[in-house]
DNA sequence: CTGAAAGCGCTTACAG
DNA sequence: CTGAAAGCGCTTACAG
């Protein structure tokens, strides 16, 4: 996987996956003719040129790099949960490595906190493409990349910045599935802790939650909704609020796994057992989720696949291609573990 | 379209500012010899190699990648916990980024599982230096890097491969501190779950644990030791064994946080409360440690600083420097949280 | 426009 | 360890 295409022992001295002599044979012309096409020289008939160009492209011959441009895709993070960032990076690397691109990593949190530029230094390094895995991109940033001629792909952007291709997970269906799972178990008083609802993803999850209740004919009780910022403290503090109510929920849908972790703590502080007294669902499926006590029922985001998809788009753009669509949404999966169970009989 | 913009410029087909035939003449050797040096192959005398290398450098031959020599440090992982890998990467990036180097990432687990080469593809990309963050490096691998002229720095290598500079944490003192903390709380029956003891780090931790007992005059009970492989299952299964004994330990020192996580599960399965009935310490301080219920008392490895140090060494080597020492050991810190308490009165 | 032939720079296989 | 010779992939110069 990673880097395949490198497995061969001896490096082939040609640029594509076939020598030009073979390309020539396939095109029914002589090697010199292919050479002329490859180097943009004149003296080749229009039909011949088109035929040869198609073959060259099919066999991995790309326009030669502008001098100084690196065969590198840079992935930019901003304060992302390390385990998630890593999974994304891995997905990017799988795709990029196979095509002989290096994957660059940087975290711009400090730069941004310090009020520094983060776009310029990136453009200066002349990567083949940039993937951002955080939400703070402004339309202005997008323009800078465009001006620098460097393709940009955004993973899970906060807002809808039309010109930048985006990759994310289907948050709405994920939250719908988690909520349905709780409804199926028999829960009727279901709380929800959301992320910042002007985030696209947080909003989509909240909407999925509400839709599930609607479909099931369960009225939505506003006193069971709390808004946080996708943090552990949300789960702990807002969770404690929910549990302290006169009619507390028997289950809570959390906006992400970190909030669920916080809710574990809040529940324990009240002497509630999970899942016997309280069912909890998360969102993300961070790597430790199966190892929590109890293991967390959550909605898996396919971060590796998200990274891989972003890399495919980025490479396509870097090599002069166009995209079929501007927004790619990958499926989420409900992973049922030990933190959900039927509500206690009352 | 392919290769546009190169038609007019008559590009010389060689990489430096003189063809290798001329370099050969200047060095008083034959072209094949220069070719061998250029490609890091064997079969060239030491004197000859040095003379040719100097000439190549003088005439603009950067190992491969003529233009824009890859200002890139590549970090190679192998099945490392994502959150740890990310912290290391961040440390590397901080140092490398400040010097305008890109940080490349790759994970060679699948390659190795598939029995493929992982060194060659890396050498092919000609990074300025390589940092390995896993243990499987053989002396042979080290030689390959040396032959390719690419500096190599190892993070936490399993074995003592003398020629490769290594960076790690002080595992012995860390385990000593954790064990002392439990002794200070009043524990006397302290169990231990170790990693594979032919790992340098696992062995050092076990030794630190034993040293603390010795200093405190507490005899070491072999029935309280279990050996695992640094996994969650170790903590769960070996932990269950320990707890099932007639005289179970009142505290357990785990070889890493993952094992501690497993032990949480094993304790819960027996109805034991942490820390009331059982104290647990981990090692690493993974990012979720403060968010577990209860928050985990553990020994923090300064992964960010380890990465940063490795990057400093790598850059020093890449720029032709020499190192003052071959092995760098950074300090660990005991972080006391909620999983340790005095033993229950009996 | 096209390609046989010659040429170029580098690498490989092998004999010394 | 070393290099003469053969080879390889591509390009160039030129004849048709």
From TrEMBL, chains A, B:
Q: Which CDD domains match?
A: HTH_LacI
Provide a Gene Ontology MF annotation, just one: transcription cis-regulatory region binding
Keywords for the protein's UniProt record, in alphabetical order: DNA-binding, Transcription, Transcription regulation
Keyword presence, Transcription regulation:
yes
Domain HTH lacI-type residues, every copy: 20-71
Question: InterPro entries recorded for this chain?
Answer: HTH_LacI, LacI/GalR-like_sensor, Lambda_DNA-bd_dom_sf, Peripla_BP_I
Keyword Transcription tagged: yes
User: What is the name of the protein in this document?
Assistant: LacI family DNA-binding transcriptional regulator
Query: Taxonomic classification, please?
Result: Bacteria, Bacillati, Actinomycetota, Actinomycetes, Micromonosporales
């Amino acid at each position: 996987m990673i880097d395949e295409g490198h497995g061969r022992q001896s490096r082939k001295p040609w640029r594509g996956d076939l020598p030009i002599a073979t390309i020539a044979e396939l095109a029914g012309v002589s090697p010199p003719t292919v050479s002329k096409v490859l180097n943009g020289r004149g003296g080749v008939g229009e039909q011949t040129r088109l035929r040869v160009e198609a073959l060259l492209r099919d066999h991995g011959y790309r326009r030669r790099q502008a001098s100084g441009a690196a065969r590198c895709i840079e992935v930019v993070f901003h304060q992302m949960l390390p385990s998630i960032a890593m999974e994304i990076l891995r997905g990017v690397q799988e795709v990029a490595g196979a095509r002989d691109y290096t994957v660059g990593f940087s975290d711009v949190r400090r730069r941004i906190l310090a009020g520094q530029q983060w776009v310029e230094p990136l453009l200066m390094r002349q990567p083949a493409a940039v993937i951002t895995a955080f939400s703070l991109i402004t339309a202005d940033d997008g323009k800078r990349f465009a001006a620098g001629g460097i393709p940009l792909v955004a993973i899970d952007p906060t807002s809808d910045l039309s010109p930048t291709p985006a990759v994310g997970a289907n948050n709405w269906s994920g939250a719908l599935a988690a909520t349905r799972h709780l409804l199926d178990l028999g829960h009727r008083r279901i709380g929800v802790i959301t992320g910042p609802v002007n985030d696209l993803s947080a909003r989509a999850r909240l909407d999925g939650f509400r839709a599930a209740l609607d479909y099931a004919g369960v009225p939505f009780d506003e006193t069971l909704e709390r808004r946080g910022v996708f943090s552990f403290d949300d789960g702990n503090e807002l969770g404690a609020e929910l549990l302290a109510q006169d009619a507390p929920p028997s289950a809570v849908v959390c906006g992400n796994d970190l909030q669920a972790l916080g809710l574990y703590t809040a529940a324990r502080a009240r002497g509630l057992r999970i899942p016997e007294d309280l069912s909890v669902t998360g969102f993300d499926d961070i790597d430790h989720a199966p190892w929590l006590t109890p293991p967390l029922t959550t909605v898996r985001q396919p971060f590796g696949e998200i990274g891989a998809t972003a890399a495919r788009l980025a490479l396509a753009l870097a090599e002069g291609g166009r995209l079929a669509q501007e927004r790619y949404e990958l499926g989420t999966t409900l992973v049922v573990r030990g933190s959900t169970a039927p509500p206690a009989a009352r």
